[in-house]
Amino acid sequence: MNNFINNSKKNGFFEGWYFKHQAENSIIAFIPGFNTDGEGISQAFLQIIMNENSYLIPYSITDFSIDRRKFIIRLGNNSFSRRGIKINIKTEEISMTGKLRYGRILPIRNTIMGFFKFLPGMECKHEIISMYHRIYGEFALNGVKYPFYPGIGYIEKDLGHSFPKSYLWAQCNCFPGESCSVFLSIADIPYHGMKFKGCICSIIYQGKEYRLATYKGVKVVSSSPKEICLKQGRYLLKIYLNTKPDGNKTNSKVEGNNTAGSRQEYNNTVRDKAEGYIGEGYKAENYQGENYQGENYQGESYQGESYQGESYQGERYQGDSYQSEDYKPESYKPEDNQPGDNNPKGNNIKENKLTRNKPSSDKKEESFRGGQEFSQELFAPVMGGMTKKIKEQHLSVGRFVLYDRKKLIFDLKSPYVSYEYVE
């Protein structure tokens, strides 16, 4: 097992992974990771983000281990990998158990950071592990059950000295009735006395990746928690966050949709189409984990401008026939309710009603938004300490418009947008 933990940095170091899970209106995200301060002292942590609350649980660094070749992270009694996660947490505040199985993950070709990944001294580096995958399973938190039959997932990671002082992050991989996944991050980047606005963005739409990034010449025309505009060569991307289902910012394809209709399209997209999300022609290479070894990274060779992400096409992936070693959606069933501190008889677990809330459709705006938008306060690392406060918001309405010169590629809207920013 390669359990490399960087504890030699004089100005602190952190590494963390973000596992997001969504089923209709319910979201649970886990962030396992570790910090190393200026004295070389390391501590592990686990952050949990949910609709109702967020938690930051400290762990001893001896409770943390990682197999980088196989991409398996263990933190206390919890484990995280590309095949799924297993949670077993008992504290004074929460009691949480459960596990999720993942379908085939969807990585992008080559690193999202471009050549910046290999530059020493970068404040923060980012990687995308999976833009989209299906999930099956459930959690029980303090006697409440959270089912994901099925759901969708997303995985990324960050590492470096500190989170950016100012940044905006947005992600969405559920567009009802459409095959699309979007990731975007814009941040102020300090580097050896200089400062510039960096941007990385990946869009996979109907089997084709569109990548906009600083190393590809993107220009950030505007950037705010409400509106983003990027221009790169022949491409123009506009993103509107917290849009209303009326006026100029409404996509005609979803205008007038009520929540019940949107949620039904969600179910059709996730359940009936199975892995049809990448059945349009996109087939990423098998992700072989991360080989990052601090400043001595020996991973894949980045080919700079020779990367032709836009034309990357693969064979049709037949999701229904996919059977990993221990992932069998047709036969997978939740475990029997087990006795515990909050469930002494093993049969008193209640189902979380958030996954079933569907407001009436008499108010078009409320019904499309679902009335479920929420935000949580999180902590991000600065020089080895979890001291930066950030906001992460979920289930927001967003509109995404992409042009190739004057030709419209797509104009899509989703009530399942997540975004994060410095408060």
Structure description:
It is a single chain. The chain is mainly beta. It is built from 2 helices and 22 strands.
Which keywords apply here?
globular; 10-stranded antiparallel β-sheet; 47% strand; mainly beta; 2 helices
- Got a strand count? 22
Low-confidence region ranges: 245-371
Report the structural category.
mainly beta
Radius of gyration over C-alpha positions, nearest whole angstrom: 21 Å
Please count the helical segments: 2
The succession of helices and strands, N to C, reads: EEEEEEEEEEEEEEEEEEHEHEEE
Q: Describe the biggest sheet? A: 12 strands, mixed
How much is the average pLDDT? 74
Determine the fraction of residues in helical runs and give it as a percent range.
under 10%
Proportion of residues in extended strands: over 45%
Instruction: Give the overall form.
Output: globular
Distance between the termini: 39 Å
Describe the structure concisely.
With 423 residues, this protein is mainly β. It has helices at residues 259-272, 364-369; strands spanning 13-23, 26-36, 42-50, 54-59, 64-67, 72-75, 78-81, 84-90, 95-102, 124-141, 144-160, 167-172, 180-191, 194-205, 208-213, 219-223, 227-232, 235-241, 350-351, 374-382, 385-404, 407-422.
